[in-house]
Amino acid sequence: ASYVNGLSVSHDGTQWAYDEAQYWPTDKAPLDFYAYYPYNATVASWDAVNNCVALTAAELGTTLNDQTDWMVTAAAEDKTSDNAATGVGIVFDHITSMIVFKAIDVTEDTRYQELVTIKKIEVKQAAYKGNYTAAAWTADNASRQDVTVYNSSIAVPLTTAADVTKATVDGGALIVVPESVQATTEFVVTYDLKESLDHVIAE
Predict the structure, then answer these.
(1) Residue 201 pLDDT grade (very low, low, confident, very high; cuts 50, 70, 90)
(2) Do residues 172 and 100 touch, judged by C-beta distance below 8 A?
(3) Considering the entire predicted model, what is its pTM?
(4) pLDDT 10s digits, 85-108
(5) Cis peptide leading into residue 38 (ω within 30°)
(6) Could you report the per-residue pLDDT of 94-152, keeping only the tens digit for each?
(7) What angle do CA 160, 164, 165 make, to 5 degrees?
(8) How far is CA 154 from CA 119, 150, 151, 170, in A?
(9) 93 bridge partner residues
(10) Confidence of residue 181 (pLDDT cuts 50, 70, 90)
(11) Pseudo-torsion of CA 165, 169, 172, 177, nearest 10°?
């Protein structure tokens, strides 16, 4: 049985706050601590069989800069009131994957730079929902979506490697369910080519 389960804990930058005060067992019974982020009691639970946090139908979202980056901890086991003074240390690990796009300027000759303008970057059939347990994800294939990572119609066109990094890394990387690349997964880059001084660059 759980001594405390699903307790919401927050930090205001100065101190920790709990939904309600909790106290150590008076008989020094050992406790195991685990945690996850963000708090969602309907999605997260403790998998006693695999001794880990489990997530059911966890959603990451598909809006850049507004996705859920799930984190979990391993169990800190057999802690008693002897740990009250020092506290119980737990380490959060990211369990999602992040997709970023980077470009390389292949020449320092300014005559041949900015010949390619990236107009759109898309990830087809991205996995953004699934179940997690025993340190592994199972993607919900029925919920896959096409996600636009960058679109020049609503942003500045990308003409240099630095532009690409700023737009797709600093501007918001795509968080997805970790998995091998599926047959339905595509990375689509739409771009324009300009004629150089002495030749035409072709696809």
Answers:
(1) very low
(2) no
(3) 0.80
(4) 998 999 999 999 998 888 777 767
(5) yes
(6) 999 998 888 777 767 666 667 778 888 899 999 999 999 998 999 999 999 999 888 87
(7) 115
(8) 10, 9, 6, 16
(9) 72
(10) confident
(11) 130
C-alpha to C-alpha distance for 22 and 7, rounded to whole angstroms? 9
Contact at 8 Å (CB) between 6 and 34? no
Alpha carbon dihedral 161, 163, 169, 174, in 10-degree steps, equals -100
Nearest residue to 113 (alpha-carbon basis) of 25, 194, 7, 19: 194
Residue 55 contacts residue 34 (beta carbons within 8 Å): no
Nearest CA to 93 out of 111, 75, 72, 69 is that of: 72
Element housing 162 (H / E): helix 161-165
Q: What is the DSSP-derived secondary structure letter of residue 182?
A: P
- Report the C-alpha gap between 20 and 39 in whole angstroms: 15
